[in-house]
Amino acid sequence: MGEPGVSRRSLRVVTAATISALLIVTLVSGCGSVFNSGDDGFDLAVPVLWAGQDADGMPTGGIESAGVWAGDDGTPGYSTDLEGIEAQGAGAAWKAASGTAASVGALFSALDPTTLGIRFTITGPIDGPSGGAALTVGVIAATRHQQLQPGVTMTGTITPDGSIGRVSGIPSKLRAAASAGYKTVLLPQSNLIDRTVSNIPASMAEFGTSLGLTVIAVDDIGDAYQLFTGTSLSESKAPPQPLSAPVAAAAKAATGELMTRFRNALASRSTSTKAQAEFSKTLAAAQSSSAAGDTTKAYALALAGYRGLLHANGVDRAKATLKRSGTAALQAELLTEAQALTTAATELRQRYADTTSFGFYQELALPAALAPLTYAVAVLTDTQEVLRADSSREALLASAAVIADQRASIDSAATTSFAVVSATPSIPSDTNAPAITLLSGYTNFLINAGNANQEYYTEVLGGGRTAPMVAGSLERLVRTLGDEASAIPPDEQDLGSEFVQSSQALSYFIFSTALVTDRQAFEIRDEQSGRLPNPEPVRNSVRVGRQTVDGIVASFARRDVDAGLANWLASWGTQSAATTAGSKNEVSGSLVALHQIWGASVDALILQAGADRPGT
């Protein structure tokens, strides 16, 4: 599980001398060709487009031919040779791109993460995580010993579900590709229209044609892989898959319990007629959807309404305490409540993790089911820090709202996910292919990617540990998750501990990705409410992510494997986005959808790795 004395949880940045034994890089202009391979690994050059400014501040672009090697060299995990790049200030950008590419590439490869090594050699510039999609293609191609088509290059970010996201500087990148002799450029779907430069066509396909290029829009890593290698990454896309009978029954029962809690909380609330009417309307819509057999929509509506109601209740109670007893009394009351909820979430997570009756696929799915509890523990831990540091009225009321939100996650989202996993049919836990080994191996990749994302956010996007003391902020959440991840022991633990650690790694990966993606690709500054500034990239990511999950779920069904939790998370997450589209809650609804779909994707891909292992 890594080099002796070296934690496999930390990103290795190695020197050229260290990696030269693994990579013999011959960069070929105008193509991404294989230049060395062996029984223990395979390496190739991946042409990555970048854009920036020259010394005069004018737009410019270029292509970095990045070396990618994948194989079993006795040191699982990934490393990045950045010698000479760190001094140029591009280290954080490359780490963000390569970290996510290594994790997503490893997941899509379905190989054993405890033996898979991935090495990157970088010698030139990059403009951020925009190289992630190309590097992911390279990682998967290297694990399959496949060449890249000559004359093809691309730009785009990569997210946990394999969606290819929006980037900047497209006109400069197209000019660079044409100058370097490339013929085909793959762009994210959301970048096909670009109006940032006034004297060129808005259609990048049309602009590309004027440069002698064929510009093709791609949605996900499967599309890109097909065009880059000429071979299919996975089976054809499938329509949304119905929940299996046992999973559907568990989800329906949990949704009924949620609606009962919602109804009871609504009946006990004293509020304005307008607010009462809005919450009652949401409950009625959830009940109607449930009666019509649409459990996923009923659940999405009920959870959003219940969380909103508890949020309003918490703020109202806090205001009453402020008026009656003052800030010191409210501060003490909220600290006590946050501490109690943190303890409850931690104990519930461990109780779920200590379940001994689960089969192999249930064990692999459990970390994703624990994610709402891991999220709650991190948020509540940070909220206590905020409460101790800031007793202003604004901070206290914001903390009260956050605490109420997490109560809803603990007693609804977490219990529902666990019920779904418990109901999912599974083969017995297999001692020849133990879940603990797979989960521990992927924990390595996911934590390293989270570290790289956080470093990029800090060094390039201007974030960091000086984040404003605002309870519930994404930046502070990621910092707390990162602190938790850094404390994870380097070696395999007992199964219950590995479930918790894998959940922490999964959450860290997802929300550190969101930290970068929200700001760069989606232009979102406030994660809590409001309408999307540019809806299409977010909506496209939800659609593509759902397709990824649906394809894997369908392929599993043909093998008599039930990916119950992944299907459930993607299904109700998609409904969260659909029911808030165009409303004042579109940002929060869409981000809930994305986070559920990303978690479902990672869960499904880990299941795929388990299903493909010998003995399963």
Can you summarize this structure?
This protein has 616 residues and is of the alpha/beta class. It is built from 18 helices and eleven strands.
Could you walk me through the main structural features you see in this protein, from its secondary elements to its overall organization?
The protein has 616 residues and is an alpha/beta fold. It is 57% helix and 10% strand. The chain has helices at residues 16-19, 91-109, 132-143, 170-179, 204-210, 221-229, 245-267, 273-291, 295-325, 327-353, 360-389, 393-423, 435-459, 474-486, 495-520, 535-557, 564-580, 586-611, and strands at 12-14, 34-38, 41-53, 59-71, 77-81, 117-121, 152-154, 157-158, 164-165, 184-188, 214-218. The strands form three sheets. It has a six-stranded mixed sheet with strand order 1-5-6-4-3-2. A three-stranded parallel sheet has the order 7-10-11, with helices on both faces. The protein has a two-stranded antiparallel ribbon with strand order 8-9. A hairpin with a 5-residue loop joins strand 3 (41-53) and strand 4. Helix 7 packs antiparallel against helix 8 (273-291) and helix 13 packs across helix 14 (474-486). The longest helix has 31 residues, at 295-325. The radius of gyration is 24 Å and the shape is globular. The chain starts with 11 loop residues before the first strand and ends in a 5-residue tail after the last helix. Mean pLDDT is 86; it is low at 1-39.
